[in-house]
Amino acid sequence: MFRKNLLQWYKANKRQLPWRYNQDEMADPYKVWMSEIMLQQTVVKTVIPYFNKFIDRWPTVHDLAASPQEDIIDAWAGLGYYSRARNLHKCAQQIVQDHNGVFPKEEKELLKLAGIGAYTAAAIRSIAYNMPANIIDGNVERVISRVFMLQTPIKQNKSEIKDKASQFIGSFEGNHSDYAQSLMELGAKICIPKTPRCEQCPVSDMCHSFKNNKQLDIPKPLPKIEKPHKHGAVYVIQNYKGEYLVERREEKGLLANMIGLPTSKWVKGNSKYEHENIYTLYNFQHIDEKVNHVFTHFTLQLTVYTAKAPIEASSNQYFWITEDKLQSKLPSVFQKVYDLAKAQDS
Ligand code: SF4
To answer: Is the CB of 146 under 6 A from ligand 1?
Structure first.
């Protein structure tokens, strides 16, 4: 009954998304994979233009594998969690070299590919290949926690959620692709975090939280843990042609291989940051307003220093790029810095 109700509801209510297939065709594994990687930690609305841009530019896995990695990383700018872009390229190359350009169906083989974990493997198997797979994303975790009225916070309860969700997979014959998507869609559209729309829910008859009027209390929250705080300086330097001085960041670590503005080291807590050597080369003004950014593992506050460069200069570490290119390549934290410097300048 749970599955039947869900599938009926999905058929009538599913959103048209660029990676979803139409009635008569099966989903393209390349598009399913691309969308699932982009959707990790990122909302659908943000992903759609990036997905369309990537598919236009690299219509097949062969095109993506043959592209320079830097082009992929630059096109990913603004989407965050940049290791995904590097893994996207590596995985495309593995698919082409080891699997003749065809995504494997077996979980064991999928898990050997860069950036593909249990969730993405299950998504490719079920959505693209219509195979039974227990897909658990954040939306599904919330739905299952509420349907079974689970009392433990989601982060500490992964295996119970997986067990409960698998009950619906075991006896399910038929459209695995739609079933997997319907459960995620229910979490995205109806069983939403703060204000679940239980009156519109196709599985409310089977939902223990709803029957006990506990839908607003489940899932239980985790106790809050403060993120460490860092701070530092960032330098916005423009030359007489209107170009900006940038660097290609190191290959490992935060924002690896991305285009970035020059910065000092970011230091923790009350420690004082040291300016980089570049600070001595120009006549900097500092902006009173700070830029704040939240990364997964820490929060960051940057003091912005701006300067006009009297002469064109570059080095192994730094190079100049035009304003157009800068805007399309910067990760979000540096985009905020650029926006602030621009607002001050105008
Ligand atoms: S009845 Fe409400 S709480 Fe239960 S699954 Fe549906 S939307 Fe979520």
So the answer is: yes
